[in-house]
Predict the structure.
Amino acid sequence: MKKVLIINGHPDKESFCFGLHESYKRGSLKKGNEVKEIILSDMTFNPILMYGYRKRTELEPDLLDAWDKLQWAEHIVWIYPTWWASPPALLKGFIERVFLPGFTFQYQEKSPFPKKLLSGKTSEIISTMDAPVFYYKWFLNDVGGKLIRKNIGAFCGIKNIRTTYLATLKKSTPEQREKWLNKIEVIAQK
């Protein structure tokens, strides 16, 4: 049994990402995992890191709750749409506000490398997009995936074990979407 945290970064509750979220949750619970959720569209917080790292902005209650869930989690599932080759601004703002020095990483005085405060955790990405996956990966260089996997996750010690891109969403049929929902439920059970 694992402690699984699903972070849903889509701002629209009627989006397909919410169906993927429910499929992953269902599959994970079937596996016997404990599941907690962070649904960014339900949260109240300023997504702007007002002072950079020069001065700490107090975390709003929803971000404190998210921080507790992040600490609790063994496995983090990022679900979001890819827009303009990267995650939505809401998800990026959440990351900037929560993935802070002293929380998720710590600068070290005599080293160019940070201390990774989330070491031992794993993650996976599930992202929808309208560009074909090959185009996104090979021509756009997987910008958003690398951002989540390496620039944020690996920087803080999180090891990404899987990335699943579902495309092209705008041209998908109801049958294709149903197959994707079933695929995500099966993935969650592994």
Summary: DSSP finds six helices and seven strands in the chain. The radius of gyration is 16 Å.
